[in-house]
C-alpha cells in the first residue's frame, strides 16, 4: 500500500463496481479488519450494506457496547444476541479444532439468517494478507469468515483489505476517522474467548478469561505489545481466606510481532507482573494462580488453542 488516502479512494470505487445494485452483507467482529472493510463498504454503497454483529458471548469486555457506539452511524447495523445458542452448541466439547468448527457453524447459521432476510447477494469480508497465507498453509482453521462462501450462495465476494498487513489496516482505519480505540485495537481471534479457555467452554471460564484479558490489556497498554491477553489454562490448588480451593490457573501472555506469523514473548518488569497477578486473582473467587508465558512463536502459537 502506497498511501492510505489513495487506498481508500480506490477501494471505495472498486467496491461500488463489484457490488453494483445488489445488497451486501458483512460480519462485523469489533476487530480492526472487519471494521475497516465495513467502513469502506458503507462509504461505497451506504445502506445497501447490512453490517451484522453477532454477540457470541465470547467477545471482549465492552465489545458489544463499543460496536453499537462506533457504528451508530450505520442505520442498517444488526446486532444479534446469540449468546445462549453458542454456549449450548459448545457444551461438552473440548477438542480445539472441534470448538472452532462448532463456533464457525453456529456463526454461519446466525449470519445466514440475516443474509436471507436482507436478500444479500454480495459478501464483504475483512480478510487480510496474513489470513490468506495462514489459511493456504492450513496452520489453523480460520473459522470466522472461511466457511461462509460455501454455505451461503453469494454471487460475489468482496475483500477490500485482502492485500494489507495489520499495520496498514490500522493506517487505513485512522484515515477513515474510525475511533482511535478501533485503530489501536489489539488483534483478537475469530473464535473469541473460546480459544482462551483450554478445554470445555463454560460461562464461568469465559467470564474469568474476559475479566483477566481486560486487566492485562489495561496494565500492559503502555508497554505497547502487539498483543497481550490472558487465558484460563487449567485448575490448580490455592488458598483463599482460610480455605484450600481448586481454582483456575490464568496464564498471561504479551508478545511483540509485526504480523502474528512469528512473535517474541515480551519482557515485563516484576512490579507490573505482580500488579496483574493481584488484580486477576481478585476478578473471581475461583482464580487460584496466575503465570506468565515466556515462550516465543515458534515453538508456541500466540493463542493457546
Ligand atoms: P496463533 O495463535 O496462530 O495466532 O499464533 C496468530 C494470530 O492470529 C490470531 N488468531 C485468529 N484470528 N481467526 C482470526 O481472525 C482465528 O481463528 C484466529 N486464531 C488466532 C491470534 O490472535 C494472533 O493474533
What is the average of the pLDDT values?
91
- Number of E-type strands: 9
Overall morphology: globular
* Main sheet: strands, sense, barrel: 5 strands, parallel
Return the string of H and E elements.
HEHEHEHHEHHHEHHHEEEHE
Q: Main sheet: which strands, in order across?
A: 3-2-1-4-5
The low-confidence parts are 138-146
Secondary structure category: alpha/beta
Per DSSP, the total helix count is 12
Bound molecules: xanthosine-5'-monophosphate
Strand content: 15-25%
Task: Identify the notable features of this structure and list them briefly.
305 residues, alpha/beta, four-stranded mixed sheet, 12 helices, 9 strands, 43% helix, globular, binds xanthosine-5'-monophosphate
Can you give a write-up of this model?
The structure is a single chain. Helix 1 crosses helix 2 and helix 1 crosses helix 9. The protein is α/β, with parallel strands linked by helices and 305 residues long. The chain has twelve helices and nine strands. 43% of the residues lie in helices and 20% in strands. Strands 3-2-1-4-5 form a five-stranded parallel β-sheet, with helices on both faces. The site of xanthosine-5'-monophosphate (XMP) has 14 residues, from helix 7.
Amino acid at each position: 500500500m502506497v498511501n492510505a488516502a489513495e487506498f481508500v479512494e480506490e477501494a471505495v470505487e472498486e467496491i461500488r463496481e463489484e457490488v453494483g445494485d445488489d445488497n451486501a452483507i458483512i460480519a462485523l467482529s469489533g476487530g480492526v479488519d472487519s471494521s475497516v472493510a465495513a467502513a469502506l463498504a458503507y462509504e461505497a454503497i451506504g445502506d445497501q450494506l447490512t453490517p451484522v454483529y453477532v454477540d457470541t458471548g465470547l467477545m471482549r469486555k465492552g465489545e458489544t457496547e463499543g460496536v453499537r457506539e462506533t457504528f451508530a452511524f450505520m442505520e442498517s447495523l444488526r446486532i444479534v444476541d446469540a449468546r445462549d445458542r453458542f454456549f449450548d452448541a459448545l457444551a461438552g466439547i473440548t477438542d480445539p479444532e472441534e470448538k472452532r468448527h462448532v463456533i464457525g457453524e453456529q456463526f454461519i447459521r446466525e449470519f445466514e439468517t440475516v443474509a436471507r432476510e436482507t436478500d444479500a447477494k454480495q459478501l464483504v469480508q475483512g480478510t487480510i494478507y496474513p489470513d490468506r497465507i495462514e489459511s493456504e498453509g492450513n496452520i489453523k482453521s480460520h473459522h470466522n469468515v472461511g466457511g461462509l462462501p460455501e454455505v451461503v450462495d453469494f454471487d460475489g465476494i468482496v475483500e477490500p483489505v485482502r492485500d494489507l498487513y495489520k499495520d496498514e489496516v490500522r493506517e487505513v482505519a485512522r484515515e477513515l476517522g474510525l475511533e482511535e480505540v478501533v485503530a489501536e485495537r489489539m488483534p483478537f481471534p475469530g473464535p473469541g474467548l473460546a480459544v482462551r479457555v483450554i478445554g470445555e467452554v463454560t460461562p464461568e471460564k469465559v467470564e474469568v478469561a474476559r475479566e483477566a484479558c481486560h486487566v492485562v490489556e489495561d496494565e500492559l497498554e503502555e508497554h505497547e505489545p502487539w498483543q497481550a491477553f490472558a487465558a484460563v489454562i487449567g485448575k490448580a490448588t490455592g488458598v483463599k481466606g482460610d480455605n484450600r480451593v481448586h481454582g483456575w490457573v490464568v496464564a498471561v501472555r504479551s508478545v511483540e510481532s509485526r504480523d502474528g506469523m512469528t512473535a517474541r514473548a515480551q519482557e515485563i518488569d516484576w512490579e507490573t507482573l505482580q500488579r496483574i497477578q493481584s488484580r486477576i486473582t481478585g476478578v473471581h473467587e475461583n482464580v487460584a494462580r496466575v503465570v506468565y508465558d515466556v515462550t516465543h512463536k515458534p515453538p508456541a502459537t500466540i493463542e493457546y488453542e
